[in-house]
Design goal:
Layout: E1 2-7, E2 22-25, E3 44-46, H1 48-53, E4 64-67, E5 76-78, E6 90-91, E7 95-100, H2 106-114, H3 116-124, H4 136-141, H5 149-185, E8 198-203, E9 219-222, E10 227-228, E11 231-232, E12 238-240, H6 242-247, E13 252-253, E14 258-261, E15 270-272, E16 280-282, E17 286-291, H7 297-300
Parallel strand pairs: 2-6, 9-16
Antiparallel strand pairs: 1-7, 2-3, 4-5, 4-7, 8-17, 9-12, 10-11, 13-16, 14-15, 14-17
Helix pairs in contact: 2-3
Length: about 300
């Protein structure tokens, strides 16, 4: 079903010295939600002449990108040129780009790879030592269910309709959050330091072994990717065993604890996690804020 499967490269010595040019996308730019994540802080470049002389890795609209190695091998995203505000872009050596042939619809393959079934298939084909990765031979040997093209197109249309509904819901949620913020901004009272209304502020740690030590079930380990403003996202929730959890007992999440992101692009996002995810622990990118009797957790959040 593939017409193109290729990876890219970077100039010898890396791309750290280049402040402009053609964007060079790597695994760190592929989000867990299937979208490209670029910002002025994480965007890297290659010189225009390097791009022009490259024979592979040049991006086209609707290319499927797959993270081919590292801790998050198998992440996929659909590339839209208008999302990066550059007319040209390429991938580096840590990413594959895929283009379908006439047998398959590009967006169908993308949604298949992004699905739980697709992710399970990709992860089952990771090879190599330590964290391992995906190679060209592995990908070409993978078998996926492929319905007739007209059925693929129908499925894609249904997915796009659901995405439109999701976008409307996101916009409505954003509007309601703004309304909440306006209510809070009208409140008055004595300026009080956080330490005066809390009994605990502290972050956790990642268990030894990192992502490779996570379990398929057990105690919840909450990470920054699970925390958004005023709501919790279950996708990507990690699990650790009893022994790992015991070493993180000092960062056990309790009912009504406020979880606050303290590093990276998601810094300052916060929420109160639902009880159904408890007992839980947090890693080093998340801090627990536990209020005392002077303050309501929901108000502080």
């Amino acid at each position: 079903m593939l017409n193109t499967l290729e990876s890219g490269k970077r100039p010898k010595g890396g791309v750290g010295e280049y402040q402009d040019g053609v964007p060079s996308l790597g695994g760190e730019h592929i989000g867990l939600d299937g979208k490209i994540k670029v910002s002025s802080e994480n965007l890297r470049f290659v010189p225009h002449d390097y791009f022009e002389n490259s024979t592979q890795g040049k991006l086209e609209n609707l290319d499927i990108l797959i993270c081919k190695d590292g801790a998050l091998t198998g992440k996929v995203a659909l590339f839209y040129k208008n999302e990066i505000n550059h007319s040209l872009a390429m991938i580096n050596e840590h990413v594959f780009l895929l283009r379908t042939n006439k047998k398959a619809v590009q967006k169908f393959l993308f949604n298949l790879l992004l699905s739980r079934t697709g992710q399970d298939i990709l992860k089952a084909n990771i090879s190599g030592q330590a964290q391992g990765g995906l190679n060209r031979a592995n990908l070409l040997d993978i078998r996926f269910p492929l319905p007739p093209k007209n059925i693929q197109e129908k499925i894609v249309s249904e997915i796009e309709l659901l995405e439109q509904q999701e976008q409307k819901a996101v916009e409505e949620l954003s509007k309601q959050r703004q309304n909440i913020g306006e209510v809070i901004s009208k409140s008055s009272g004595k300026l009080t330091m956080l330490e005066e209304i809390t009994i605990k502020i502290g972050s956790g740690a990642t268990p030894r072994g990192g992502k490779g030590s996570y379990q398929t079930s057990g105690k919840s380990l909450i990470r920054s990717q699970n925390i958004y403003d005023n709501y919790f996202v279950e996708a990507g929730l990690a699990f650790i065993n009893e022994e790992q959890a015991e070493k993180l007992n000092n960062v056990t999440v309790e009912k009504n604890d406020i979880l606050f992101n303290i590093t990276g692009a998601s810094i300052a996002r916060c929420c109160i996690v639902e009880e159904k995810y408890l007992p839980a622990r947090v890693n080093q990118h998340v801090s627990i804020i536990r209020t005392n009797e002077k303050a309501l957790p929901k108000y502080v959040q």
